[in-house]
């Protein structure tokens, strides 16, 4: 009996380990620093399809995984708008993506996205990852979760992953603006430091 229990325990451990290494749950196989990002096409709240290739003149793109209902995402909404307003003209526009499933989280449907974008005056594309493939391709786990892409030899390369700043809950207590620092470093041909921070937010519902 003890031998049987031991075998069952070892089998369970191996199964859990296999899922972990396969990237289930936290998408361990998502993009890492230095990876080249593949193009994708998603529907914007305007109704048109938007791709990374629609920004051929951009020096890079600030990809933000966000949503309509997460309090952390809402607390960062004005900061996301500010990033687009500050850096779009410098070649780094914001591209926001909602990966959540409306079946799992009310208020995340396409019509709610359209209403949110209109009410808040979004100046950036707000895309619907309806098939939930793009967020898993990136490896995003939270809303908000930032991937800063830099154009290098006509490819978009990941140069920063993580949070917008060091105070996700309260903009008034921010002391380190991670994304701004990263964009400024890229604009000045400098290494990004830190290049990875912890994204704090709601788990993606997909």
TrEMBL record:
Keywords: Signal. CDD domains: PRX_like1. InterPro entries: AhpC/TSA, PRX-like1, Thioredoxin-like_sf, Thioredoxin_domain. Residues 1-22 form the signal peptide. PROSITE patterns: THIOREDOXIN_2. Coiled coil: none annotated. One of its GO terms (molecular function) is antioxidant activity. Pfam families: AhpC-TSA. Residues 31-184 form the Thioredoxin domain. This is AhpC/TSA family protein. It comes from Leeuwenhoekiella polynyae. The lineage of its organism: Bacteria, Pseudomonadati, Bacteroidota, Flavobacteriia, Flavobacteriales.
């Amino acid at each position: 009996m003890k031998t049987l229990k031991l075998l069952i325990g070892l089998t369970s451990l191996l199964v859990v380990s296999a899922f972990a290494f396969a990237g289930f749950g936290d998408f361990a196989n998502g993009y890492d620093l230095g990876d080249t990002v593949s193009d994708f096409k998603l529907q914007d709240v305007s109704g048109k399809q938007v791709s990374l290739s629609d920004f051929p003149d951009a020096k890079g793109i600030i990809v933000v995984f966000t949503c309509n209902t997460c309090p952390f995402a809402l607390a960062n909404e004005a900061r996301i708008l500010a990033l687009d307003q500050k850096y779009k003209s410098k070649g780094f526009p914001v591209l926001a993506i909602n990966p959540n499933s409306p079946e799992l989280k009310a208020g995340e449907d396409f019509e709610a996205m359209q209403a949110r974008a209109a009410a808040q005056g979004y100046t950036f594309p707000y895309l619907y990852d309806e098939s939930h493939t793009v967020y898993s391709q990136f490896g995003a786990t939270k809303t908000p979760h930032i991937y800063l892409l830099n154009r290098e030899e006509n490819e978009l390369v990941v140069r920063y992953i993580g949070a917008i700043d060091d105070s996700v809950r309260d903009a008034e207590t921010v002391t380190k603006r991670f994304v701004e620092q990263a964009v400024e470093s890229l604009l000045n041909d400098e290494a990004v430091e830190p290049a990875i921070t912890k994204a704090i937010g709601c788990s993606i519902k997909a």
